[in-house]
Amino acid sequence: MGCGSSIRIKKTAKTIKAALIIQNWYRGYSARLRTRERYALTVFQSLEYADEQGQLQLSNFFSFMLENYAGIKEKDPAIVNRLFGCSFPDERSKLDCIGVIEVPDSYTGPRLKFPLTPDSLHLLIEGFKKQQILHASYVLEILFETKEALMQMPNLNRIRTYPTREITICGDLHGKLDDLLLIFSKNGLPSSSNPYVFNGDFVDRGKNSIEILMILCVGFLLYGDDLCLNRGNHEDFLMNMRYGFTKEVLSKYKVHGEKILKFLEDVFAWLPVGTIIDEEILITHGGISESTDLVLLNNIERNKLKSVLMPPVPLDKSSPVETRRHRARNPPRGIQMTGSPSQYLTKYEWEQVTDVLWSDPREKRGCYPNTCRGGGCYFGPDVTAKFLRKHRLKLLIRSHECKPDGYELCHDGKVITVFSASNYYEEGSNRGAYIRVGFRMTLQFFQYQVTKATCISPLYRRVHTIESSAMKILKERMIARKTDLVNAFQHQDREKTGKISMGQWAFSMETVLGLKLPWRSLSTRLVITDKEGNVDYMSCFNDMHIQKPVKEVQSALIETLYRYRSDLQIIFKVIDSDHSGLISMEEFHTMWKLFSSHYNVCIDDSQVDELARRMDLNKDGSIDFNEFFKAFYVVHKLDSSTKTNAGPV
Predict the structure, then answer these.
(1) Which of 55, 147, 292, 314 has the fewest CB atoms nearer than 10 Å to its CB?
(2) 82, 145, 132, 143: which is closest to 252 by C-alpha?
(3) Domains of the chain (ranges plus CATH)?
(4) Is the separation of the CB atoms in 229 and 271 below 8 Å?
(5) DSSP class per residue in 550-571
(6) Mind telling me the catalytic residues?
(7) Could you give the CA distance from residue 591 to residue 464 in angstroms, rounded to a whole number?
(8) What is the pLDDT of residues 122-138, one digit of tens each?
(9) What's the whole-model pTM score?
(10) Cα 325 from chain centroid?
């Protein structure tokens, strides 16, 4: 018996040892996958912030345009009013604003009756679940009523919890209707006993922005003080031009889309900029800065700020006090406007709003420019502590940043980020979350992830999907800067070998692209290296190229137009006030000349004119710029092969 016991003990020891080896291998394997997933999310976020930075920089271009294009005010004052005009209370009746739009008998979507009832919200949600489109007549009436109600709201909402009543806080939704419906399914519909705070960025990126906005507006009209809507940085018509909401509205409402967009500008301008719960918790979309003053913020005429990207500030009206306030900041230049100074916000007021919509927390102490986004600031734990003490608050809840788990705590738990759009970058990229705030500041966090699959994909497959998508977008950024990258590589390659060290390659990528990424870790997905670790730098571009619309066009021009295609599209959309998609050759030439001058783009105007003429296929003297810019797309030669390589690595 003793001998048998000894054998069993030895077998048990071997089994345990084998199990430990397997366990350690799996832990290491999972850790490597998680690291790759984190790097891919870093790529997505860096590119997202770089795009937002470019969007903010457009404000300087529009300033430059109006200062240099002397005849634009006389030629088309509507452009000036659209960019720099202010929203003011509209005393006209609903009939004057909207007119009479008949809902035909053939319409099969939700039919609403005004005044709205709780059944209206249920009807709307059920219709949207069936992918029905709400008729433009109802959309316009809801927007009109929402604007009228928002005009009565303060800049900072105030709402209270009770022992029997909790408040739910949701972050960015970005047009992801499934996430909103899942929240309502888990947490219940809004009501006076189930209040909500939606913390901005309802629209853009996702395909159901207008549906989310209609649900939130109807909920707000029904429950008023028990459903708070904060403005986010995407509740802005210039952001909507780049990130998809404008296109969505015009696609779904071809006849009345322009009128809907105009109403949306006013609704967004009237949205409050924050909410305070129990006089203890401040909720803003982005965050704060060292100069954020809630008293001043509560007194700003917020409706005057139609777009945070276009600060409506007269150049010659800034006082010496304001100049001193901005000595450490570099805000966009103002525009010399006609009219009373009282019609426009000051630079300092504009800065107050920009900071709460665009800022991000960081662990570094102090307050310093938000170099990634290009707007707002980074604020450290000391700034948070000082701000909370000053205003006798205990907590700041904000959104604005995608987090892998849907939420994140920082600054010793005094700042919480909540993000409610799951799968934001790619399927499986992140969870969504919402927070329930109970009496005496008790917090509960709820996470979820929308999926149409019956079971969640294995981790390696999810990581591969996210990583492949991130690399594809990053490579598009690289091909748009190919000439600059090659010049940087060749400057490092003094021996003309076609290879440089990993450090030189990483330095060149960082310098040219301006993205703070772990280039050494990403190199295995981007370039070929030899046994000594040297990089074959031209291998960056092996599997992709820009499809040229015209063969004779120089590659440098193609790269330039591709690089600035989003900025140029927005400029053209602003000029194309009737949304026809057509712009004259003269307008194209004038805008390109200003654009190239402002951005120091050294491209011969004659090359651009020749390209435009070639694109004018029907020779009618105008160009369909949507089709024009679709011609500049990146061809990924290895797409088919990467799709088959979805196994574990």
Answers:
(1) 314
(2) 132
(3) 82-92+117-447 (3.60.21.10), 468-542 (1.10.238.10), 548-632 (1.10.238)
(4) yes
(5) STTS-HHHHHHHHHTHHHHHHH
(6) 234
(7) 42
(8) 999 999 999 999 999 99
(9) 0.80
(10) 29
